[in-house]
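Anyone? Bumping this.
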Amino acid sequence: MADTLKESKAAELRGTPFGRPPVIGPGYTFASITDKIASIVLRKGTPRGWLVGFGISFVFTMILMNTIAYLVLTGIGIWGNNIPVGWAFDIINFVWWIGIGHAGTLISAILLLLRQSWRTSINRFAEAMTLFAVACAGIFPAFHTGRPWLDYWLFPYPNAMGMWPNFRSPLMWDVFAVSTYATVSLLFWFIGLIPDLATLRDRAQKKSVRIIYGALALGWRGSARHWHRYETAYLLLAGLSTPLVLSVHSIVSFDFAIGIIPGWHTTVFPPYFVAGAIYAGFAMVLTLAIPIRKYYGLEDFITQRHLRNMAKVMLATGLIVGYGYLLELFTSWYSANTYEGFMMKNRITGPYWYMYWLLILCNIAVPQVLWSKRMRDSIPVLFTVSMFINLGMWLERFVIIVTSLHRDFLPSSWGMYRPTIFDFSMLFGTVGLFLTLIFLFIRFLPMIAIFEMKTLLPESKATEAAPHSSREKPVLPKAGGPQESLA
Amino acid sequence: MKKEPDLYGLLAEFDSPTAIVSAAERVYEAGYRNMDAYTPFAIEGLAEAIGFRKNSIALVVLVSGLIGGLSGLGLQIWTSAIAYPLNIGGRPLISWPSFIPATFEMTILLAAFGAVLGMLALNGLPMPYHPVFNAPRFELASRSHFFLCVESKDPKFDPVATRQLLLSLGANEVSDVEH
């Protein structure tokens, strides 16, 4: 009885309503939070599991590098896409990766503005995921241009040819949106890292390590004035990132929606793409967070409540995505347009019917188990559902892109699309690159924001209860007082 | 008051946010102005307690965002209507609705740079050397302890009296910070 009371009191102190599990395990202090997270980075020797995981990911990264080398030497004919399916794996993978990135910004910016304190322990990690996903995404359009060494032509710069890009093209919007997104995510991630880099600098035993983290920390010393400006800048960045993240996937969806291809030309695309992006992103956060929290023993920081909340976000965004699918069906019927109607029939019953039904299974049917509280609390179920969603969101882009393109207006120009081995080696190669970067990140940088975790402790707030006698004059000792205090 | 030439200030160590905020308030009330607090995380009310009330980050972000948006829009209008006009069936050259995405992205991009670079510049970072790092136990400022530094350039600073004041406010320890 006494214990329950104590626990509920502790939960109250941690700012959570009665009965709700806290966002951080009990018994932590400022020092122990710091030491626990910093020790993952500063420990001597590298755990065997990390080496094995990194090794496997690195093999796939090398497969990616070899594919790209062969691609550049030969040309994009090594891929399966050809007219009429001019966009295939390259754009599917691009949209898939960009979508995965969105959860990071959502967690770090939107949940910050909404004062969701549970975001704290997953935001650093999700931001890193955003950066790496955007890096993987960028590879595809960059090489799809066919002559990647001329990609800088996409940027407006004064040149000897006297030419300028056409800003009326959604592909130009894409360049601006994705490059801004990558840059702002990097800035947001780095600004969040500065105080933690200073912590690592101060905790490091070896001089060389201290110098590296010290240089990266830019001389951060935790001054109150600095913190004041820092908090303002961080909040403003969150405010700027919120419309940015919504704009990025909207603009990605314009690549399709501005076109006249049946199945692309629809106004529901921007919100439906954004919801899908958040859906995919949370699934990827869960896919990565579940094994990592287990392996590094971070159950006290990434608690059951975090997993449960992420499951709820997935359920909600998944329903929005389901609404998008329904609306696609509805518009193709309500438009009374022959081509739209045929496109939808072809999508559901045509040669790629199994992709459509797999998509419905992965994105709509399976995630409904998350309605059950018991299922949301089961880690194996959550992991399995997140894997289904990862696959489902990839299938969604396949269905949108390939089934719309392969049979459009004239039956004489219909065709089929089959991926080649190089399509797959690029896809799995970027998965390898993504995981390689994640492994490097968790080894060399604090994967949980140390300074933000400390603010979850109730004692991090200055209280008025202390002898705060502002009216009372402090007793000033006379100059040249007792000398022993100088010793 | 005479001050030792190589003394940057006195650094007092506290255990809790509450202790440092009330100590900072009382040191400020005692008339000291040149001081700073060093903490592992932001503490509400601490910057105000040492007399720092306003920061100009928001203004920097606003101005840089406006520059980004206007220059982005200007660039698009100039390239599309003046430098490289494309006559497509006589449609308007300044087709502003299609300029919205890049204008928006440029606004965000420059505003974000303004927030980060503005914060670093106003904070005087990167700063490779600062005397406060010479103090013993200062490495705890990024871990678990809270420090208040009264600087020797303050007109009221006195090595003995200031130390006494800091100790009377419940500091664990007061140490000299050398240049």
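Late reply, but here is one note on the structure posted above: The two ends of chain A are 52 Å apart (CA to CA).
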